[in-house]
Amino acid sequence: MSELILKAESLSACYGRVEALSDVSLQVARGEIVTVVGANGAGKSTLLQSILGAVSPKAGKLTFAGQDITRWPIYRRIEEGLVLVPEGRRILVSMTIEENLLLGAHMRRDKIAVRREIGGIYDRFPNLAQRRNHNASCLSGGEQQMLALGRALLAKPQLLMMDEPSLGLSPLFVQRLFELIQAYNREGLSILLIEQNTANALRIAHRATVLELGRVALEGDAASVAGSTGLQEAYLGGTSREVMEVDHKRKSVGRRS
């Protein structure tokens, strides 16, 4: 395995008396896509929030780019390149597309580089470029997800964390999204992907972890996890092929991009 960009060791987290994570360990090497899958309530989003620092683990250790960040505040983690694309996108619809992008770079001082990178984002997302001075409320759900991704990239991530990025998107935008994730990874970006679209997540990931009720139920290279009889036991039931096919249909049918 290459040099680790992230190492989570024995993380546990609670909401009141409810234990959301229990002794969860995870590693992401530089240049990898690692996906975390599991049913609703498995602890996937809590894991990301704990890594970002929005949730304080009751136990465990976090190492990022060789530094112990367990007690670091959120802003310092972001400054070091630990960046999250949150579930639901959370763009500011009353602000313009360009203003939303600039929010991603608000900690940066290299303004010339920022303008150049915004130009690169517009090249990759021409729909955003055409409406850069319009409020983000004019965008479809899929376009809003592309804006959220562009905003996160302007924070210069060493590790990009994505929480359910395909949620609510049409099949066309889901396909485009996963192509983009692969493209940015080929350019060297390390990615930690939380997804319920199990089939696509396991298809593009290098390694995978399956969470069940806040615990690691299964982990390994993505192809092995996808073909494992343990996947359906830890996740939704049925054969692993059925799990992925049903999950894919449930996420894509009837959703507006």
TrEMBL record:
Annotated coiled-coil segments of the chain: none
Key word Transit peptide present: no
Claim: Nucleotide-binding is one of the keywords in the record: yes
SMART domains: AAA (SM00382)
GO molecular function term, any single one: ATP hydrolysis activity
GO biological process: L-amino acid transport
InterPro entries: AAA+_ATPase, ABC_transporter-like_ATP-bd, ABC_transporter-like_CS, BCAA_Transport_ATP-bd_LivF, P-loop_NTPase
Domain ABC transporter: 6-238
Alphabetical UniProt keywords: Amino-acid transport, ATP-binding, Nucleotide-binding, Transport
Function in brief: Involved in beta-(1-->2)glucan export. Transmembrane domains (TMD) form a pore in the inner membrane and the ATP-binding domain (NBD) is responsible for energy generation.
UniProt similarity note: Belongs to the ABC transporter superfamily.
Annotated protein name in UniProt: Amino acid/amide ABC transporter ATP-binding protein 2 (HAAT family)
